[in-house]
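INFO  loader      accepted 1 record
INFO  loader      residues=111
INFO  predictor   begin
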Amino acid sequence: MTAHRRTARACTLGSAASAATALYLAAHHPWLIVFGLYPCGFLAWCAARYSAAHHRAVAETAWERRRVHGERPAPLDPCCMLARRSRGAVHDGRVCTDLTHRTTSHPRSAT
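INFO  predictor   done
INFO  writer      dumping tokens
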């Protein structure tokens, strides 16, 4: 099990506990529901992000395994997470699944 999946499950459990706390607080003082719903929403968002990161890591590992075994798999969509964040302008040469953007040598840091 990867760290992303473990963290996603922990966030899901925390979100469920916060929702239960919100329901309990709503029965006693309705305005206290905020102290349960805000963490519930935030942890649910975190769980979704970590789950997506886990699925991406699994897809990248499977893609790399197929490439090493001699197949020519199609690039993932998006080809790398950096391309998604920059709307395709920049690529991560180490993990990009589009072989035209993948580089074999990495620039050394200037010291």
